[in-house]
UniProtKB/TrEMBL annotation:
Belongs to the acetyltransferase Eis family. Gene3D superfamilies: 3.40.630.30, SCP2 sterol-binding domain. The active site is at Y124 (proton donor), F399 (proton acceptor). Homohexamer; trimer of dimers. The gene is eis. InterPro entries: Acetyltransf_17, Acetyltransferase_Eis, Acyl_CoA_acyltransferase, Eis_dom, GNAT_dom, NAcTrfase_Eis, SCP2_sterol-bd_dom_sf. PANTHER family: N-ACETYLTRANSFERASE EIS (PTHR37817:SF1). Pfam families: Acetyltransf_17, Acetyltransf_9, SCP2_2. This is UPF0256 protein.
Amino acid sequence: MKIRSTTSLDLDVLVDTVHTAFGRFPETPGENGGGLWWSAVEMDRGVLAFTDDGKAVGTATAYSFELTLPGDVLVPAAGITGVGVLPTHRRQGVLTGMMRFQLAELRQRGEFLAVLLATEGGIYGRFGYGPATYTRRLTVQRSQGAFRADRAVSGSIEVLKRPECGGIMEEVYDRYRRAQPGALSRPRRWWELGAGMPPVVPAPRYVAVHRDADGVPDGYAGYTLTDGSLVIDETITGDDAVFTALARFALDHDLVTEVTFKHFPTGHPLRWQLADINAGQLSSEIDWLWVRLLDVPRALTARGYVGDGELVLDVDDPFLGEHGRYLLTVRDGRAECVPTDRAQDLSLDVRDLGSIYLGGTTPSTLIRAGHLRAHSSAAALTADSLFRSAHPPHCLHWF
């Protein structure tokens, strides 16, 4: 088997191979109302695996994103995607070889974080990725959608068609993601090419755009309405009052029996604003963004922190055959992380460090699950305090 980086000449091979791996056929431009998911692929970041006779049997690639960390810190992150192995060549080391090759390439580029969306939860942990954000749906029956009290919010809502407001959505999303831990950037060319999933893809959608008292767009909700079911792809705003205004708009819509909010944020207060808290039914909770640390000290010093304290982390990276012990010291929201020979407070795998990195999974949860080992009675409390985020991490970008 031979593994190499892709070039601009390999696009057709990459697209054909990954589709064959998943038993699908490539869409044609304009099919399903938009662009092609691979139109934004960066061909200098791809990987191909070949048999000795030159047949392509595996693919992987990466996008260049910014990831928002706790503390409103923006850092580069490689978004791993297009990972697939032909059914005839699975369980023969192709995927493992590509993952090892790709991680080495990311380090050569100076990158310290990689993220991905996992189609199956049992695949990527062995390569050092851990689930770090989660998503779910909230469904509200319109007949039960009364609110406990009016919440005044200045501004207005305008309903536009998706092709009319791409620039507005790009601007609002970019402001939102810069202040939301766990959110990824959407590079301009994604919007221009219509890459990804709705509402980035200009498929038929209505978009409720909220504007503040000065007429500046500060939120939107893209939706479809079919057979009485109004489904919102995403509600984007950094203001809870604006979110509520968009939710009330949806629940007041004519010819609607139920409203479903996809990618409903963890900890959001909307259910508490309803007259009947049980009117909002949560479902379909799944993992979303998985995180992989490639440079532990650099990653831990990059993010912001809420509390002060120190913790000695003994981190094992079995996939890369690495091990390190680090003293993490946090003062006034910033951290130092250096190698140490002090006795460890926590022993953990790098994939579990990825899970707690954004604050969406508490260390104590993984201690109780038997994944982390606390070496002192105070270690779990200290770890929970240090790694929590002032705002729960949330990611809804598909890639």
